[in-house]
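Minutes, project check-in
Item: structure for the 103-residue chain
Input as provided by the requester:
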Amino acid sequence: SLAQADLSVDVSAGILVTWQTSPSSDVALYRLYRSMIPGQLGNKVLTTSDATITSARDTTVTAGITYYYTVTAVDAAHNESSIVLTAGTFGNNTPFVDSTNDD
């Protein structure tokens, strides 16, 4: 899933990351990953409590560092969606470049 980050001037408020719901009918929750390297999945930042949540605030960020986010959908059997890595740049009207993970 493509994630879009809202870069706040006040880094203490964190970065609000939003995404669209998965078209799959069996999604139970979403996982948000963060990396400092484009094209890498990075570390899991959080897991939502259910599939109705389509945004999260990452409050563990540091000013001046560029972050790359990836969101995956997880079903009730704990199957995680395939991972599409995304890279975003604030202020760009079309900020995302998709790169399929070949792992």
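Outcome recorded: The first strand starts at residue 3 and ends at 6.
No further action items on this chain.
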